Structures are given as C-alpha cells and as structure tokens.
C-alpha cells in the first residue's frame, strides 16, 4: 500500500512538473482579479480616443476653445475651415506673429522645438529631407514641404504657417496638442529666420548695472 502511494505521488509530481515546464503559447488570458488595476484607463496623448465617443466624451487633446494657458499668448483667432472651404486658411495670411523678435536664447529654444517636432519630416536643414523621407529611401513616400529653397513656403506668411501647424494641412497633422500657442509661434520665427532675408535673433542686452563699489574706508578709531 505504501509503495502504491509513493508511485502515485511520484506520477503526480512528474505531471505537474511537465505542465509547469510547458513553454508553448498560452491560449487564454486567464482571470484578472481587479482589471481596473491591471489595465490603465488613463487617457494617453497619442492613443486612439475614438471609442470614447460612445460615452459622450469627445477628447482630441487640443486646448479648450477660447482658453489661454498661464504664461502663453492668445490662442489663434481663426477656426478650422469646414470640409471643402478655405476661407479661414486664406484669411490667416493677415495674422501677424504676436511674439516680438526672438533673442539668441529663445531662438535656440525655438530651434530645439523645431528639431524635435518638425525636423523628422522637414529636415534639420529645412530642406524637406528628414529621416522619414531620407531622399526617398525612408518609410514616408511623399517628400515633405521644403521650407528653405521653395519659393512657395519662403513667401508664405507667418499666419498661414500657423494655421497649418495648428490645424494640419494636407498630409501634415495638427500640432496643437504637442506644442503650446507660444511654442508654435516660436518655431515659425525660427523657420522665417532660416529663410532668405529672415530676421536673425536680436542680441541680448548686456547687463550695465554697475557692481557695488567696495567700501574701503576704515572705521575711525
């Protein structure tokens, strides 16, 4: 009897060990005790939010119309055109960049923002030859706009560029959720400065505050 129990225990152990060592694909997801903790319900910036419409939630990661973030500049005053209409796109030519000429420090920041958000398509040299196109060998088949070297974009007013960056244009999507209004205007300042005849950054005024003169007088004894 004792030997039978030993054999039974041995067989069970072998079966369990073999099951534990099975590295084949698992066909079921198993059970999750608290799915809300296992799967994030947070709204992520670049995720597909179309399913939220079923719950009457319309989130597109863009600022609420008419609001201005603290420290930012006024929002772009023109709304996006309806399908088939270009009235506001044309009217955007009259919008002037509200930011004054950038100083050297702000121009470096504008260049950094451009390289992060725009350079992948338009290229570090603004020639439309970024990593996504790469002379036609990249994963993107259509050449992005040549911001320096194409008269169409060199003559494009800053306001019309802002319209395109804010709402997207043709194959380019909107960057209103990635860049604040001020950052978008800064990038446009940088693009215009790189184009022929563009304004270069203004020099930062030197600090003319005189250093306090040390008191060399000796206290009277």
Task: List the main descriptive attributes of the protein structure presented here.
single chain; 221 residues; mainly alpha; Cytochrome Bc1 Complex, Chain D, domain 2; 8 helices; 0% strand
CATH superfamily of the domain at 87-194: Cytochrome c-like domain
- Multimeric status of the protein: single chain
Q: What would the principal axes of the Cα set say about the shape?
A: elongated
Mean pLDDT: 82
And the CATH topology of the domain at 87-194?
Cytochrome Bc1 Complex, Chain D, domain 2
Strand content: under 5%
* CATH architecture type of the domain at 87-194: Orthogonal Bundle
| Radius of gyration over all CA atoms, rounded | 30 Å
Largest sheet: none
Quickly name the level 1 CATH class of the domain at 87-194.
Mainly Alpha
User: What is the rounded distance between the termini?
Assistant: 113 Å
Order of helices and strands: HHHHHHHH
GO molecular function, one term: electron transfer activity
InterPro entries: Cyt_c-like_dom (IPR009056), Cyt_c-like_dom_sf (IPR036909)
Organism: Lacibacter sediminis
Pfam family, one: Cytochrome_CBB3
Write a structural description.
With 221 residues, this protein is mostly helical. The protein has a domain at 87-194: Cytochrome Bc1 Complex, Chain D, domain 2 (Orthogonal Bundle). 33% of the residues lie in helices and 0% in strands. It is built from 8 helices and no strands. It has helices at 2-20, 35-38, 87-91, 104-117, 119-122, 151-154, 158-167, 181-194. Helix 4 packs across helix 8 and helix 7 (158-167) crosses helix 8 (181-194). It starts with a helix and ends in a 27-residue tail after the last helix. The model has no long low-confidence stretch (mean pLDDT 82). It holds the Pfam family Cytochrome_CBB3. Keywords: Heme, Iron, Metal-binding. Residues 105-195 form the Cytochrome c domain. This is Cytochrome c. One of its GO terms (molecular function) is metal ion binding.
